[in-house]
Amino acid sequence: MPVTTKLPRPRPPLTPMQGRTARLIPTQTSHAPALYDAFARDTDGRNWTYLPYGPFATEADFTTWMEATCQGDDPLFHTVCTAEGTPVGLATFLRIDPGAGVIEVGHIHFSPLMQGSAVSTEAMYLMMKRVFDELGYRRYEWKCDALNAPSCAAAERLGFTYEGTFRQATTYKGRNRDTAWFSILDSEWPHLKTAFKAWLAPENFDENGRQRQSLTDLR
User: How confident is the model at residue 163 (pLDDT cuts 50, 70, 90)?
Assistant: First the structure.
């Protein structure tokens, strides 16, 4: 099949992504205190299980990690903030391939302050919107440990298609990782975008903030 997309595509810019409930900004070490406090609400450190780093015993250790890891252009870290500007999570663009028009989302670490909230879904929507609408990429990837059932379920809820599992793909923290692959293609984005916009609309939530229709149903 001939490629009709003009390649290479631009690299992601260092500009904010603004939504109604969420705002993403390039990560700065000044975000470390608020992020450390947000992640510390995960008192048993369970949310760090499938990440190759963490948990961190002190804010100083976390800041040192951020200084060493979060300032590059691939992975390109973004801090997820609430509408009020409070840092509550991290996510990145990585394995950025402008020549092929392919980009991955990863290093997703949502604190208990945002898990299961509209903020987390809108953050993912804003990143997709940048990839497809603003930058014109052909393919958006999500990869995770095949044992990470919540991550696999999140990918499918967000509209990613499961493509298979790469066995013994890598190791981390002394463990094997079989990597599950998911993707969204540019041809699939218009339909997904419509579903996201309907789900995120204020009228889809009741007075207690509970959804009226699920994103899966709207898809």
Answer: very high
The first and second tokens of residue 136, run together, are 């014109």
Amino acid at 177: R
- The pTM for the full model equals 0.97
Spacing of C-alpha 121 from chain mean position: 9
Q: What is the DSSP string of 36-59?
A: HHHHTTSTT-GGGTTSSS---SSH
Q: Please list, in sequence order, all residues whose beta carbon lies within 8 angstroms of the beta carbon of residue 120, skipping any fewer than 6 positions away.
A: 22, 80, 89, 110, 114
For residue 117, the 8-state DSSP code is S
- Round to whole Å and give the CA distance between 140 and 131: 7
pLDDT tens-digit profile of 12-70?
999 999 999 999 999 999 999 999 999 999 999 999 999 999 999 999 999 999 999 99
Structure tokens given for 141: 């990837």
